[in-house]
Amino acid sequence: MKKKILITSALPYSNGPLHFGHIAGAYLPADCYARFERLRGKEVLYICGSDEYGVAITLSAEQAGKTPQEHSEGFHQINRELFKKLGIEFSHFSRTTSPEHPPIVQQFFQDLYDNGFIESHETNQLYSEADKRFLADRYVVGICPKCDYEEARGDECPKCGASFEATDLGNPRSKLTGASLTTRKTVHWFLRFDLFKEKLIPFLESRPWKSNVLAFARSYVDEVRPRSITRDLEWGVPVPLKEAEGKVFYVWFDAPIGYISATIEWAKQIGEPEKWKEYWLGAQTKYVQFIGKDNIPFHAVFFPAMIMGQNTPYKLVDELVANEFYLLEGKQFSKSEGWLLDLDDFFKRFHADQIRYTIAANAPETADSEFSWKDFQSRCNGELVGKFGNLINRVLVFIQNHVDGKIPQAHELEEEDHRFLNEISRLTQEIEESFASYRLRQATQLIMELASCGNAYFDKKTPWKEAKREGGRPVLETTMALCLEGLKSLACVSYPLIPDAAEKLWHLLGFSDSLADYTWKEILSLPLEAGKLLPKPYLLFQKIEDELIEEEIQKLQKMHEKAMERKEPPYAPLKKPIEFDDFCKLDFRVGRIEKAEKVPKSKKLLQLEVDIGLEKRTLLSGISQHYTPEELVGKKVIVVANLKPSKIMGIESQGMVLAGSLDHSLELVTLDDLPAGAEIS
Fold first, then answer.
1. pLDDT given for residue 567 in this prediction
2. Counts for the chain of helices (H) and strands (E), in that order
3. In 3-state terms, what secondary structure has residue 82?
4. Which of the listed residues 184, 219, 250 is the one where a domain comes to its end?
């Protein structure tokens, strides 16, 4: 009996189009893993779907003059189409507005409620006098209670990642009108996550997840408290209590249950309505979840606790594969700032396998990584064309020209032949291990190493010389037969990553069926039929010219500039008034920067040596993304000279340099004529 593997990717929120940052985190790694495990003969079910409820969708729908359903439907279809273009193949792609979804969510709630894990409380909620309604978290912005970021959302801070209640915000205001909000009492239902600590800790300790995922999850468990799971809203799954009329479930409560309801829907659609149980209730099933790092608390802590507290023995996640952020040219993707790619245009110019390969080669597995147009060109030209495509083309063209286009027979093997076969075996095994352990970046590197190995073997054996040498025919035929073995292995190991190119290579080797019709082991052991006529070769990848890349870079910059022209500057709200005596306590001095250098292991910090007249000070300043050390030397700046010293990254900072900032721009406050040590007041 085949081993079952259940794979889920975080449900994409149907409030906007997906971008490559999303794809790199939760979808491409999952698709590669699903293809790989199917190739290994496993029974794989890959489930996903649109997350369609929540305040963010009602907010966007209001602004667009649409109903939430209309708004969500549009992006559901857009995102499905993007997945198809990228070759992301789900077993089933559902949506949380599916009729299968509400009953499962409500049953979860009822079980948790009956089992004593849910209780109601009268709470203070933010209320808009202008709209005459409570404003849910996503309608609210304010000052983060953790890091003081002044544009935090009502449920989490995009800067530090903290989660909190909207009433915890400082200076809360309406996202729609900017008006200040008041608080009013309302009743909500809370899930007692604090009651699950004793179960969650051993659960986490038993999981072989990445250390950063476990550490992040454990920190949430240590501080976990009851969390509201209901909202005063019309758009969502209704709470099944008479006293909760007019309330729906908070989206983070209902969304992960969508993995289960989607699987139930899949089973019904294939005509086997009980088959979902083989995956969600099967003890031997392996459950692997792929997410971005911002979803760690919901999938490592909250959803497992919800499963633990209800009555059906649903499968708890075995492997939680959480990836870091994938940026665009060093910055986060942003629709409002025009910092994104036009994906419709992208797929008119480039192939899905090109972006799949590039994302995988820079996969954000342990740290943030980025897409850059120059790197995209370099990888496509240097690796997909220069290594992968070059090996395929030179081998198949040589066979067309020197072996009548037929698969040659291998003869007696030389030492170099044995060495090459051993390398093929070693690399295919290492690639298999990399895919199996979710190391997509390493698998990509090893695939290119296999292509390079084939090119090196071809060069070392010099078959073009054997074609001219009397008696060289057996060596030539053996060399080309082994090169074809290398190509067969290359087709196998590259299929999870670049499936279209792998299938084309497979057909160029004379096979009429699909790689998916075989298992990994079958492909590697399948004999190549000597004497069989091969199709005429063609290039699988085309070189990307400099002009095209420059055009794309300019397009991105123009789109960004246009968006920023429309965007109002994100002015920070004024801070609370202070007494004049408080201001007088600060000692501002003119300081002359005499030395500046980068702080090791820090992307932002510079270490400055500053002469403030009376003495010289060491200061740390987070300005390295705006100034080079060289351009700072000699500048006169304003220093807060009487701050208590603080140690940052092992270095004591003895003051602070003043700078102004707006959005992503930062500029030091500098002076020309006053000498170092002069007082500023």
1. 63
2. 25, 27
3. helix
4. 250
CATH number at residue 408: 1.10.730.10
* Per-residue model confidence (pLDDT) at position 163: 78
Which range of residues forms the domain containing residue 613? 580-680
Q: State how many domains the chain has.
A: 4
Q: Find the angle CA(276)-CA(235)-CA(336) to the nearest 5 degrees.
A: 100
Distances (CA, A) of 343 to 73, 220, 264, 347, 373: 19, 36, 32, 6, 14
State the CATH number of the domain containing residue 263.
Answer: 3.40.50.620
* Same domain (yes/no): 428, 507: yes
Q: How much is the pLDDT for 575?
A: 66
Residues 612, 590: contact at Cβ < 8 Å?
yes
Average pLDDT, the chain: 93
The pLDDT of residue 573: 56
Buried b (16+ CB within 10 A) or exposed e, 586-621: eebbbbbbeebeebeeeeebbbbbbbbeeeebebbb
Classify residue 570: in a domain, yes or no: no
pLDDT tens column, 75-89: 999 999 999 999 999
Query: Residue 137: in which H helix or E strand, if any?
Result: none
Single pTM value for the model: 0.82
Domain end among 217, 250, 283: 250
Alpha-carbon distance of 499 to 481, in angstroms, equals 24
pLDDT, average across residues 583-587: 89
CATH code of the domain containing 172: 2.170.220.10
Q: How far apart are CA 612 and CA 590, in angstroms?
A: 6
Longest dimension (CA), the chain: 99
CB proximity list for 404: less than 8 A, separation 6 or greater: none
Q: 264 and 244 in one domain? A: no
> Any idea what the CATH number is for the domain that residue 663 is in?
2.40.50.140
Please give the Cα distance from 657 to 670 (Å, whole number).
Answer: 10
User: Are the C-beta atoms of residues 323 and 292 closer than 8 Å to each other?
Assistant: yes
Report the 10 Å Cβ neighbour count for 352: 18
**Same domain, residue pair 488 and 599:** no
Q: For residues 405 and 283, state if they share a domain.
A: no
Same domain, 40 and 94: yes
Which letter, b or e, does each residue of 67-85 get, where b requires 16 or more Cβ atoms within 10 Å of its Cβ? ebeebbbebbeebbebbee
Region at 116 (left for phi over 0; alpha for psi -120 to 50; beta for the rest) = left
Q: Do 156 and 179 reside in the same domain of the chain? A: yes
Q: What are phi and psi of 670, to 5 degrees?
A: -120, 160
Cβ pair 7, 47 in contact under 8 A:
yes
Residue 336: what pLDDT? 83
Whole-number Å distance between alpha carbons of 10 and 48: 7
- Which amino acid appears at position 525 of this protein? S
* One-character DSSP codes across 240-292: S-GGGTTEEE-HHHHTTTHHHHHHHHHHHHTT-TTTHHHHHS-TT-EEEEEEE
Residue 387: CA count within 13 A, CB half-sphere:
19
